[in-house]
Write a structure and sequence with these properties.
The chain is an all-alpha fold. Among the domains are: 114 residues, no CATH class; 100 residues, Methane Monooxygenase Hydroxylase, Chain G, domain 1 (Up-down Bundle), CATH 1.20.58. Helix content is 70%, strand content 2%. Helix 17 crosses helix 20. The C terminus is likely disordered.
Length: 718
């Protein structure tokens, strides 16, 4: 419609409080509240604190601390008294709903849903026998009235906002449904008896509204038909709207002038729509007008709901002023709730641990490390340990040269020592040979094979020392040989490490993978990433669950909950874990598919893995060899220096021994000459014989060692 006429709304009177053994200030501020939203807030706070109080102090019916509580019954005006703190709560809750209905009937058209919520909570959580105005029938009536009026407010807003015709029709149809429920309650004889004289007034207004809003619903269905160019349907909907509006007008007799004005305005709109639609169809469109019962009925759209009342919401009721009073029963219930939480955690952890065990065993069997499965990056650069060695050698450019020179010096000293020892040995052998000849000349008896004549003391000492030096030299010779082998093994690597880095990098092995091989690697990495993502999410969800359970303390709620409602409270509180349990179940269920994909990827990875393993082994071996060569350098230099020191010392000793050997050999030769001369003097003169050829002489001395026994006889003649 072009404008939105308003219908009057039903609002409820507040109950009046009687005697209650509370402080007068409480009665003044919490019972006789102002008729505004501040009054609603005061009632909610008072209701909440009563809820906290009754859970700690036995003020219920027939309990030790129960006191008389009196309130006036609305319809009869009688004072009703009960010794039950819940009666006080029920009356406060009734007044909260009544005050919201009063505010909702004002121009702002708000608060009806709050009224319905208060009456719903009163109906569902309190006895219905306290008084007539809080009976089950009356509360159901109030709830449907408030919901109907709340939906009516929504309808007004929807029409002002020019919402789609079909939506407006459905909203209006739901208003009709709510008022029909209220009308059925009003027509009930028992309810009529309880309400008294106001029953007829309410019933007449509600019946009029049923027809009025049914007319509004069909008006907008006709507008939708017009939008769809269903001109026959448009006519029948507008006609039905007109018929229902006429019924509403009949029922509106005696209603205020505001109602009559609204009906007249609506008649102008619907009547105009109907006449125009009928005329257009008769003269222009000529569409058949269907019967109303052949068209689909308009289904209501319930877009309002009774707003819930939470007596323990601190944002509404304020802080619990009795918080420090915790009954033993609440502690016991808290322990039971803790066990429920522990059971929930055990069940979840059993599933997690079972899946984790399967996952760990599977991953162990594959022996796949996500961090190293794709190690291609390591081949693109020189490893830090090798870079360190290259850097160290770069500041010592003469490393290889120094090592070669050191080994050459060692070889020179070694050769000198070996030459000296050989000369000593040759002198000793020569001396031994001359001594043997002398003995043979003197004794005319050949020396036994393999025996040696006794050397002089000087030569014996030289021979002993020479033997010792030869033994030492022989052992050192083996070490020297091994040292040279080690140098030859490492010298090439040291030259490589001392050279350009490009050559070092080129010397390191690297894999040659095809594009297919790389694709296999990428797929495996992706799935391994999924595995880790699944693990991380599982751990995170588990941690969240543990933290939620740790922080979950419902002692305050337990204090304010009746023992008979504990099980229900536990169930409601445990629902907070449903969402995280769903996430965990999804995570655990995904494991099977992830592992299947990983198995397939691993099969394809087998050949690539073997090739990479071989290259990696070669690469590691090469790096280790180069590092070992660097680390061997200092050892080689040290040992070569030790070798030089050793052979220099041995060379000095060998030189001295050589000089000593020469002197001893000369002394031994001189002794042999003396012996020969003495022996010659002892010989008798020879018999005359034919002269023999002259003996060869050695100028300037006679070499007696070259003479045999026969020649000695003629020496005097010379």
């Amino acid at each position: 419609m072009e404008a939105v006429p308003r219908m009057p709304m039903i609002w409820l009177d507040l109950k009046e409080a009687g005697e209650f053994a509370f402080n007068a200030a409480v009665k003044k501020s919490a019972v006789n509240v102002p008729r505004d939203f501040e009054g609603c807030s005061t009632l909610r706070k008072y209701f909440g604190q009563l809820h906290y109080l009754q859970s700690r102090i036995p003020m219920g019916a027939e309990q030790e601390a129960a006191v008389p509580i009196a309130w006036t019954e609305i319809f009869s005006g009688k004072t009703v008294t009960h010794e039950d703190i819940k009666y006080e709560q029920a009356c406060i809750l009734y007044n909260l709903g009544a005050l919201h209905s009063m505010l909702g009937a004002m121009d702002k058209r708000v608060s009806e849903e709050c009224a319905a919520g208060a009456f719903t909570y009163l109906r569902d959580h309190f006895p219905h026998s306290y008084s007539v105005d809080m009976s089950h029938q009356i509360l159901n009536l109030n709830i449907n009235l408030m919901l109907g009026q709340a939906q009516e407010c929504l309808l007004e807003k929807s029409m002002l906002d020019n919402r789609k015709s079909f939506l407006v029709a459905r909203i209006s149809a739901q208003v009709v449904d709510y008022y029909k429920e209220a009308c059925r309650a009003l027509e009930n004889s028992e309810t009529a008896l309880l309400l008294g004289k106001i029953q007829k007034d309410w019933k007449k207004l509600v019946q009029m509204k049923i027809y009025y809003f049914a007319a509004v619903a069909h008006l907008h269905m006709g507008k939708q038909a017009e939008e769809q160019q269903k001109f026959g349907e448009r006519v029948i909907y507008f006609q039905s709207a007109l018929d229902k509006l006429n019924e509403a007008i009949k029922l509106a007799k005696g209603q205020p002038e505001t109602v009559q004005e609204a009906l007249r305005f609506t008649m102008d709109v619907i009547g105009g729509k109907y006449n125009s639609a009928k005329k257009d169809n008769d003269f222009i469109y000529h569409e058949a007008v269907p019967a109303l019962d052949t068209l689909q009925s308009v289904k209501g759209a319930p877009l309002v709901k009774a707003l819930p009342v939470n007596p323990t919401d601190p944002a509404v009721t304020g802080p619990d002023i009795f918080a420090k009073l915790v009954p033993m029963a609440a502690h016991e219930a808290s322990s039971l709730y803790s066990e429920e939480k522990a059971k929930l955690l055990r069940d979840v952890m059993a599933k997690i641990e079972a899946k984790n065990e399967v996952l760990d065993q599977f991953m162990d069997s594959l022996q796949l490390d996500p961090d190293t499965v794709d190690n291609l990056d390591m081949y693109s650069h020189i490893p830090p340990v090798l870079m360190e060695k290259c850097a160290a050698l770069s500041v010592r450019p003469d490393t290889v040269k120094n090592l070669v020179q050191s080994m050459q010096v060692l070889s020179g000293v070694f050769t000198d020592v070996e030459a000296s020892l050989k000369e000593i040995r040759d002198l000793l052998e020569e001396d031994e040979a001359q001594e043997r000849k002398l003995q043979e000349l003197l004794g005319k008896v050949p020396a036994p094979q393999g025996s040696s004549p006794l050397p002089s003391p000087g030569l014996a000492e030289v021979s002993k020392e020479c033997a010792k030096y030869l033994e030492v030299h022989e052992k050192a010779s083996f070490t020297n040989t091994e040292l040279h082998k080690a140098m030859n093994l490492h010298i090439g690597n040291l030259r490589l490490l001392s050279g350009p880095l490009e050559q070092v990098r080129a010397a390191l092995p690297s894999p040659a993978l095809t594009e297919d091989d790389k694709q296999v690697l990428q797929n495996l990495k992706r799935i391994l990433g999924k595995v880790q993502e699944m693990r991380d999410q599982r751990m995170s969800l588990e941690q969240q669950l543990r933290e939620m359970i740790q922080k979950d303390d419902i002692t305050t709620s337990l204090v304010t909950t009746d023992r008979s409602e504990m099980k229900k409270l536990f169930e409601e509180q445990l629902k907070k874990y449903d969402q995280i349990k769903v996430y965990l179940e999804q995570n655990l269920a995904a494991q099977e598919n992830v592992l299947k994909a990983l198995t397939d990827a691993n099969v394809k990875y087998a050949a690539v893995r073997k090739a990479l393993a071989e290259v990696e082994h070669k690469w590691n071996t090469t790096v280790q060899t180069l590092v070992a060569s660097y680390e061997a350098y200092e050892d080689l230099m040290k040992k070569s220096q030790e070798g030089k020191d050793f052979y220099t010392d041995l060379e000095g000793k060998a030189t001295k021994l050589l000089e000593k050997a020469r002197a001893a050999c000369q002394a031994a030769e001189a002794t042999r000459q003396q012996i020969l001369e003495k022996e010659l003097k002892k010989q008798p003169p020879p018999r005359p014989t034919a002269p023999k050829p002259a003996l060869p002489r050695k100028a300037p001395e006679l070499d007696a060692r070259a003479l045999d026994a026969a020649d000695l006889a003629v020496l005097p003649e010379l």
